[in-house]
Amino acid sequence: MNPSWRDSELQHTVAAGTWIERQLGRFPTTAVGSLVPLGYEAYARIVRPAESVDEKGNTRWVRWSDIARSRGTIAHAAMEWSGITAGAPQGFLRTDPPEPTSLVSCWEDQVVELAALSRHFTETADDCWFAFWEGNTAFEGISPTVPKLQFGSFNHYLFRGAVERASEDFRGLSPNAWWPEDRSWFVSAHVDFPSVYVGGSEAYIRAVVNNVEFEAWTVASDQPITSDSDHLNI
């Protein structure tokens, strides 16, 4: 079992994150830059794997690209779940799951890998910030005197620690954003979207996209990420 953040580690200042709101983009529809601050050299999308539980209760994880291949749809950087699964019968991941082309780790293990990779692309890997959206009922009872960081119209509780703590939960929930003190990269795991978006140097994004643990694609900061933005699978 992974360790967890403790209530006593809640930060009582949010000044370290006020830059985020200033650098988020304003787009006609929600885009990558609505979640990850503008100004980075490059951006990537990491698609969280889909969970497939068979009739015997066995779980395995499936890449979206494998689902697209099995459904005859197109895997691409802007694919959306509704697009790649168009026409699929309800429960197909249980009754007729696609065969993965390679071993797929659960998302929790992928976060561990992402944190380890990210350590090599910052000078402040032991001093990172982790933001948890306040809206979950798991956070009821936290003192109203604890300050919250607002960005992207959401309020967040802040924690501080080494990058490896990205895999730690707070009251059973994972961080919705994390970044190092030197801001050399930024990871957004927004509660409303099934993918994780990251920004950083070209070398960092190249390392993310080329890592076989992830199903990752380079994206532009203005790429729409709403459920109706998959124009190749209509």
Low-pLDDT segments, ≥5 res: none
Helix content: 10-25%
Mean pLDDT: 95
Shape: globular
Order of strands across the widest beta sheet? 5-6-4-7-8-9-1-10
Structural class: alpha+beta
Reported for the largest beta sheet, the result is: 8 strands, antiparallel
> What is the number of strand segments?
10
**What is the total domain count?**
1
Indicate the proportion of strand residues: 15-25%
Radius of gyration using CA atoms only? 18 Å
Helix count equals: 7
The helix/strand series, from N terminus to C terminus, equals HHEEEHHHHEEEEEEHE
User: What is the CA-CA span between the terminal residues?
Assistant: 42 Å
Describe the model.
It is built from seven helices and ten strands. With 234 residues, it is an alpha+beta fold. It has one domain. The strands form two sheets. Strands 5-6-4-7-8-9-1-10 form an eight-stranded antiparallel β-sheet. It has a two-stranded antiparallel ribbon with strand order 2-3. The radius of gyration is 18 Å and the shape is globular. The model has no long low-confidence stretch (mean pLDDT 95).
